[in-house]
Design a protein that fits this description.
Distance between the termini: 22 Å
Number of strands: 13
Helix content: 40-55%
CATH architecture of the largest domain: 3-Layer(aba) Sandwich
CATH topology of the largest domain: Rossmann fold
Structural class: alpha/beta
CATH superfamily of the largest domain: Glycogen Phosphorylase B
Length: 364
């Protein structure tokens, strides 16, 4: 089917952590025969920080972040069989959601794809007239980046006809083992942009661990950390482009995943970096959250920490041989059960069934 997808950016991961998620899922759908057009605004200097050029499996339309630019791309929604509005586009989100519903043809699927469901649901709970709440009865399907049954139940309670988590996964063509790179030499590395509901957890899990292990080397990658006070043994890198993620993950003794506050509280929300690190064969330490065992086995494929003290204790006892063993086990697990091709096949089945059901209903 032809899919019109309105999202933040497919081409750039700059202040856009969903980029590799979009690439993995949509490329998997394209391999299954779907014709995809991705519409992204020219905003937040993302086009100046592209990680990739437009791929051959998807047409990308970059439009001006203006009222006229928005209207121009919304006019194309009527040509699609499935029209997707993702959360967090960053320009005209409310107008985009209303426009998708107005412009989609009657027999097309209308989809809200929430890449930050715990935060969105918290916003909706605090705002009775929230645009997403009002749109839900008119949408055919809600897809989420994760969240498991808590998110599914919450969306259904708000009026969603159907809600389906589509979890992050691995694209082995882009994230895979590589040779170590001296630029990323460290005992523990963390990669993530500085965001309000993540910063306190970075302080707790990463900065406190570094402060208690002054003899060890720590590496902090991601945008926004430049003026953040840190222990002297933390080296900052700023934005790390997608092409460097494999080396960033595989070079240190271990890498750390720190969930955003809302995702940790909800659980069942593995970040992209979980699968990207595992795909590189890295030894991953993650903060504790409910549902981790659905993706990686604690103690064998991933190490789990409740706080910075746990991180420091884990790192202090970790040997290179044990780190390699954990990384190899994690790689085997994600290749067998958590690739974007597998996610895309599951989603393809649901999309085709939903479209067929809608057309039967309209024909009745």
């Amino acid at each position: 089917m032809r899919i019109a997808f309105y999202g933040s950016s497919l081409l750039s991961s700059y202040w856009n952590g969903a980029a590799t998620y979009y690439r993995g899922i949509l490329q998997g759908l394209a391999r299954l025969g779907h014709d995809i057009v991705f519409y992204e605004p020219d905003a937040f200097d993302r086009q100046a920080h592209r990680d990739i050029e437009p791929p051959d499996w998807c047409r990308v339309v970059v439009y001006p972040a203006t009222t006229e630019g928005l209207a121009g791309v919304l006019a194309e929604a009527g040509a699609a069989e499935a029209v997707v509005k993702a959360s967090g586009v960053g320009y005209g989100d409310e107008a985009l959601l209303a426009g998708v519903l107005a412009q989609a043809r009657p027999d097309a699927l209308t989809i809200w794809w929430d890449v930050d469901a715990p935060a969105t649901l918290a916003e909706i709970a605090a705002e009775p007239a929230h645009p997403v709440r009002e749109a839900l009865p008119n949408l055919d399907l809600v897809l989420t980046y994760g969240g498991g049954e808590p998110v599914v139940s919450a969306y259904r309670a708000l009026g969603a006809t159907e809600c389906l988590p589509v979890y992050n996964a691995l694209d082995p063509s882009t994230h895979h083992p590589v040779a170590p790179d001296p630029r990323f030499a460290a005992d523990l590395a963390f990669l993530g942009n500085r965001l309000p509901d993540r910063e306190a957890r970075v302080e707790r899990f990463f900065l406190e661990a570094a402060g208690s292990l002054p003899e060890r080397r720590f590496l902090l990658g991601g945008s926004g950390w430049g003026d953040k006070p840190c222990p002297a043994n933390i080296r900052k890198l700023d934005h790390v482009p997608t092409a460097a993620h494999n080396a960033f993950n595989v070079t240190p003794l271990a890498v750390l995943n720190i969930s955003r506050e809302s995702m940790a509280a909800t659980g069942f929300s593995p970040a992209t970096r979980v699968f990207e690190a595992a795909g590189a064969g890295a030894c991953l330490i993650t903060d504790a959250w409910e549902g981790i065992e659905l993706f990686l086995e604690p103690g064998r494929e991933v190490l789990v920490a409740r706080d910075g003290r746990d991180v420091a204790e884990i790192l202090g006892a970790l040997t290179p041989a044990e780190a390699r063993r954990i990384g190899e086990a994690a790689l085997d697990r994600v290749l067998a059960g958590h690739t974007y091709d597998l996610r895309a096949r599951e989603l393809d089945t649901r999309l085709r069934a939903a479209l067929a059901a809608k057309r039967r209903e309209l024909a009745a």
